[in-house]
Write a structure and sequence with these properties.
Number of domains: 2
Helix content: over 70%
Radius of gyration: 21 Å
Largest sheet: none
Shape: elongated
Strand content: under 5%
Number of strands: 0
Oligomer: single chain
Order of helices and strands: HHHHHH
């Protein structure tokens, strides 16, 4: 393990700064390339995880809004708005995530369906098996199902 790899374990921020400076100076042979590759891959995975988390949260609160009309709250409305806005920002910053959103859309809905069931105490079959919300609705921060 070289000194830079050791730094990765002991002081991550200093490791980042050191690698950044080495890259700026074009000293490519001194860069901790293996760890750098891992970190770049993790960055992409983190963005995908955040996208899934926000999508799930929108679904969760849309389901609660639609199937528990007497319990509707400003908190649910704010959560729908907030996470829809987060999805829009993520897709604006990284348009290449749009196909990923389509790929995980149904899986995230199924996960949200389960969480909404557990959170509300309603039987999971209360919620449709197929997602009742279009991506346009989910990405619209003003959308509320009636």
């Amino acid at each position: 393990m070289n000194q830079l790899s050791s730094l990765y374990e002991s002081d991550f921020n200093l490791w980042l700064e050191t690698n950044t400076n080495l890259l700026k100076q074009r000293k490519f042979t001194q860069v901790d390339i293996e760890q750098l590759i891992e970190e770049i891959e993790d960055m992409g995975n983190n963005r995908k995880d955040a996208l899934e988390s926000n999508l799930m949260r929108v679904f969760q609160h849309l389901l609660k809004w639609k199937y528990q009309p007497k319990k509707r709250s400003n908190s649910w409305r704010a959560s729908i708005t907030e996470h829809s806005l987060r999805l829009n920002k993520a897709l604006k910053k990284s348009p290449s995530l749009k196909p990923y959103l389509k790929n995980v859309y149904e899986e995230c809905y199924q996960d949200a369906r389960l969480v909404a069931s557990r959170e509300t105490g309603l039987d999971i079959n209360t919620f449709p098996v197929s997602c009742p919300f279009t991506s346009e609705q989910v990405l619209n921060p003003d959308y509320l199902p009636e």
